[in-house]
Specification:
Number of strands: 76
InterPro entries: FN3_dom, FN3_sf, Ig-like_fold, Secre_tail
Strand content: 35-45%
Oligomer: single chain
Keywords: Signal
Protein name: Putative secreted protein (Por secretion system target)
Radius of gyration: 36 Å
Largest sheet: 10 strands, mixed
Structural class: mainly beta
Shape: globular
């Protein structure tokens, strides 16, 4: 039978023992709860008659919510209402169109949040959740009927939607709607009636659905007569009114019966087999929950049939076991009566001391007082002997204690797995070589040891009991791992702990920062977690700003403010005067913190200057840093930021991203909201990312922007603390992006050696560089689906810069990366825009030229000099360049014509053009190798324009070239020969 552990987080049991004992002592009543997960509720849309709440004696008018953004006091439902298996008796109504069964914990400022967000107060019923107002309306509720068939109707009557309805800009537009809760069936029903006025649809962005417990939800796609319902995509953009009489009904699933005859049989000191008789209705799976009555262990195992095996149990421990059925409709049974089971007693650990009598080898029996290599049940004491122990291979032990001045060494790729605690007194030393692992089943106690840990070494924790990382001295780990070996692990930090590279918590595990401890993620550290594992508590995250200049930053924590960015070498400064000044560069004090708002761009004069107007200064340092947004930080020197707060771990959505109509419009400065690495391909390809170009742009210390799109470029993986640019695809369609756990890189990301793939597409990457300073790049590649125009999935624009080399494909908009259709036999010319910050010598280099079809050549063409360079033979071409950008001088020609190849230098030297300078007539003298065939000869001016052509016959004597009428100046004569192109300078006076 295949067994899988459920991914439900196990709480810190030893700190909630009274709660656990309460669960166990009331297990009989607890077992009667029938679980109906929200995803198992069925949905139906129908047409009915809207019946307003009547004015009878029992009708209650809810006046609290006629105020804007207000929530009512709690009211009694009038009967016990069961939702997702839990029973509720009270509710609150909100002016923004929702009703919650959670009372006393919400504030009403929830406009624009969707059912997937953490600020929805579950259970929450949202018949029309938006920014509404009850200024001209009334709210009522009434419980009607007799037990057990009572019905609660809560009504928002003549409610203004949108909230601004009634303002001078918008006429009144109102709607009435109801929530109905049915006692016997547990059905939830929404009913609607259109009222006066027609709303401005551009002002509407409603959500209709249900938010359940455990982050579950059901969301309607629209307000039509036949919407779809989703448990994975929350829609908060509904801008149509439901029709009068429209009814939406959510019905809980049918019951799922318990299994019977539960028994537990021991198979070892730490394992047991649970058998049972399946219930009716053909359950599809079973869940076995077990609780140690001591409160120090619990777990859940699933299986598809009886029996189910339990592993990792504690010896000599009493457990209570319950079995639940899960039926095909998603419902779960209430759970069986607890079965009591006691595991057998484990033998006590033995003790052994290190003597080092033979050697330094851990696995040499003669080095131990017990004359045996330690087993998992052997508590060891390391004495400060002449031969100190060295661990090789895989070794085990129980407790590990070091004496002062003792040293424990783990060699490369070795592992020591200690089932007990590890104690390091003052003066002791722990050395871990590359790839080594110290796996600890108990706690860590560092009271002043010297730690020499290789950057790739790991300390991990495993086992079923909670672990503490404490002691009298702080500890810096290179890589700290929880839950890798055993699920549902718990690590409590009770001292100052720092992590240099990786903090990893997986398999339903948790790292808890206690009030007497702290956690610091040093610069470059990454947090890796799966969806059901967490780092809880306040964390300090460092980010190094290496030098003076502009830095683009995003915080991996929530609740931190802009003031919290202060660090030695950096003082955050804001000044709202910057945002309205006619000369913002002159405001005092000048801001050092900036956001970016593309709607501020109002000119189309010079690309860089236009783009710069999008920056603005926040108004106060008390502003909380927004997760998922990027900030520009200007520093006069290097600085080490250290922001503190809970780590971002839930989904982060940045919606309402817009684009103006100007050339530099539509860019948004976002950022990685997580303390782990973000995979942009996963973000861009997700269904929750809409309306954005697929490209991402990250800034570089040299002032350039590094583009990435569709596997091209080096910016796919976004490091913690990194902000980046994205662009909205169309001015008419707002965009949205959601950062999720699924988009995080699953392990430590080594930026120095990122994952690589073999490129199979035809590709040419050019770089432009001067003698010193940064280079710029432009890439073209070819694949099915791409077009000759701009493709949001395949292309990346060239962001404007200043004072740097400029290289882009000269398209309708300059492109740093251009995806194009597959090459054919036809020639393809791709013009380049080339610019420089100062006149001088520059070079264009084909840094990558890959996978061209056989017989296809890539030529760099210089129209000013008449030069054609075969980039496969000569990757670098040097030239002089002025300060005026040119889009006509350089181009790339992809062709199957071999005549454009440059002739050998020896042959070119034998071609002579005279006199120099020439007037009206010049003579062309050819070597014998070129006299036997006719030649095509062309003369070009410095703009690359053809000014004369000649078809010369085969001949041994020199050929005359008529120059009459040509303006004085420099020209280039180009001969197309069977051995390649010959280019000669011609000076006309």
């Amino acid at each position: 039978m295949q067994l899988t552990l459920l991914t439900a987080w196990r709480p810190r049991w030893r700190h909630v023992l009274p709660f656990v004992l309460s669960l166990l002592t009331t297990a009989a009543s607890w077992a009667q709860v029938q679980t109906f997960p929200l995803r198992a509720y069925s949905f139906a849309a129908s047409q009915g008659t809207y019946t307003p709440v009547p004015f009878v004696y029992e009708t209650v008018q809810v006046k609290d919510i006629t105020q804007d953004d207000n929530e009512s006091r709690p009211f009694d439902i009038g009967f016990p209402f069961v939702f997702e298996g839990a029973t509720y008796t009270r509710f609150v109504m909100d002016s923004n169109g929702w009703l919650s069964l959670t009372v006393g914990s919400a504030t009403s400022s929830n406009n624009g949040f969707d059912l997937q967000g953490t600020r929805a107060y579950a259970p929450l019923f949202a018949p029309l959740w938006d920014d509404l107002h009850g200024r001209v309306g009334q709210a009522f509720f009434l419980t009607e009927g007799t037990a057990p068939n009572r019905v609660l109707t809560a009504e928002w009557r003549n409610w203004s939607w949108p909230r601004s309805a009634g303002d001078a800009q918008y006429p009144y537009s109102t709607i009435s709607f109801q929530v109905k809760l049915y006692e016997t069936t547990g059905v939830i029903q929404y009913c609607y009636r259109q009222e006066a006025g027609i709303p401005q649809t551009s002002e509407l962005s409603a959500t209709i659905g249900i938010r359940g417990n455990y982050l579950s939800f059901l969301s309607l796609s629209d307000a039509s007569a036949a919407p779809t319902v989703s448990s994975t995509v929350s829609t908060n953009t509904i801008n149509q009114r439901p029709a009068t009489g429209q009814v939406y009904t959510f019905t809980p699933p049918t019951a799922c019966p318990n299994p019977t005859s539960v028994t537990a049989t021991a198979t070892s000191q730490t394992t047991a087999t649970v058998s049972f008789v399946p219930g009716a209705n053909s359950p599809v799976s079973y869940k076995v929950q077990y609780f140690a009555t001591s409160g120090n262990q619990s777990g859940t195992v699933t299986g598809t049939t009886s029996p189910v095996e339990l592993t990792g149990l504690l010896p000599a421990t009493t457990y209570q076991i319950m079995v639940f059925s899960t039926c095909s409709n998603g419902a779960s049974s209430p759970g069986t009566q607890p079965a009591v089971y006691v595991t057998t007693l484990a033998p006590p650990n033995t003790n052994s001391s290190w003597t080092g009598a033979v050697s330094r080898a851990w696995d040499e029996p003669g080095n131990w007082s017990a004359n045996l290599v330690p087993a998992a049940t052997t508590n060891v004491l390391i004495n400060a002997t002449a031969n100190q122990p060295i661990v090789t291979g895989r070794q085990v032990s129980g407790v590990v204690r070091l004496r002062p001045d003792a040293t424990l060494t783990l060699t490369a790729n070795s592992q020591l797995s200690a089932s007990g605690y590890v104690s390091l007194p003052p003066g002791s030393s722990l050395v871990q070589a590359a790839g080594s692992t110290l796996a600890i089943g108990g706690y860590w106690n560092n009271n002043g040891a010297t730690l020499t840990l290789d950057p790739t070494s790991t300390v991990s924790f495993w086992g079923s009991t909670p672990h503490d990382v404490g002691g009298g001295e702080p500890t810096t780990f290179q890589n700290l791992v929880v839950g890798d070996a055993t699920p549902q692990d718990e690590l409590n930090l009770t001292n100052a702990i720092s992590v240099q590279h990786l903090l990893k918590t997986v398999q339903n595990s948790i790292v808890q920062v206690q009030t007497d401890g702290s956690l610091r993620l040093l610069d470059g550290a990454q947090v890796v977690r799966d969806a059901d594992s967490f780092v809880a508590g306040s964390v300090t995250a460092e980010k190094l700003l290496p030098a003076a200049g502009r830095h683009f930053y995003a915080a991996p924590v929530r609740t931190a403010t802009l003031a919290g960015l202060a660090a030695p070498g950096y003082a955050p400064v804001v000044n709202a005067a910057y945002n309205t000044s006619a000369n913002p560069a002159a405001v005092v004090p000048y801001p050092t913190v900036f956001g970016f708002d593309q709607s501020r761009i109002s000119t189309a004069v010079e690309p860089r200057a236009d783009f710069e107007t999008g920056f603005f200064s926040p108004t106060a340092l008390t502003e909380v840093i927004t997760p998922g947004l990027g900030y520009r930080l200007d520093t006069s020197t290097g600085a080490l930021l250290a922001v503190t707060g809970p780590l971002n771990s839930s989904n982060i959505t940045r919606s309402g991203l817009t684009r103006g109509t100007l050339p530099q419009s539509g860019y948004h400065l976002l950022g990685n909201p997580y303390p782990g690495v973000l995979d942009w391909d996963a973000v861009a390809g997700a269904s929750t990312t809409t309306g954005l170009d697929a490209a991402i742009y990250t800034s570089q210390p040299n002032g350039t922007y590094r583009p990435y799109v569709n596997g091209i470029g080096a910016g796919r993986y976004v490091l913690p603390g990194q902000a980046f640019w994205v662009r909205v695809s169309a001015a008419s369609t707002p965009a949205s992006v959601t950062f999720t756990q699924a988009a995080r890189y699953p392990d430590f990301f080594n930026a120095a050696a990122p994952p690589t793939t073999t490129e199979i597409r035809p590709l040419l990457q050019l770089s432009l560089a001067g003698a010193t300073g940064p280079a710029d790049e432009a890439t073209v590649y070819f694949q099915p689906g791409a077009t000759a125009g701009f493709d949001a999935r395949f292309d990346a624009t060239r962001l404007p810069t200043s004072g740097l080399p400029y290289l882009a494909w000269a398209d309708a908009q300059p492109l740093a990366i251009s995806g194009r259709p597959l090459l054919t036999d036809d020639d393809l010319t791709l013009p380049l825009t080339v610019g420089s910050p100062a006149a001088g010598t520059y070079s264009l280099t084909a840094s990558r030229l890959l996978n061209l079809p056989p017989g296809t050549f890539a030529y760099l063409r210089d129209a000013q000099t008449g030069t054609n360079v075969n980039l496969a033979q000569q990757p670098t071409y040097s030239f002089t360049l002025g300060t005026t950008p040119t889009s006509t001088r350089f181009s790339v020609l992809l062709t199957r014509d071999t005549k454009l190849a440059v002739a050998p230098a020896a042959l070119s030297k034998q071609v002579a053009v005279y006199p120099v300078p020439a007037r009206n007539l010049a003579w062309l003298e050819l070597p014998a190798a070129l006299q036997s065939k006719p030649l095509q000869v062309a003369l070009y001016n410095t703009l690359g324009q053809t000014v004369r052509t000649w078809n010369l016959p085969a001949a041994a004597q020199p050929h005359s070239l008529n120059l009459l009428g040509l303006a004085p100046g420099a020209y280039h004569l180009r001969l197309a020969t069977s051995q390649g192109t010959v280019s000669k300078a011609v000076l006309v006076e």
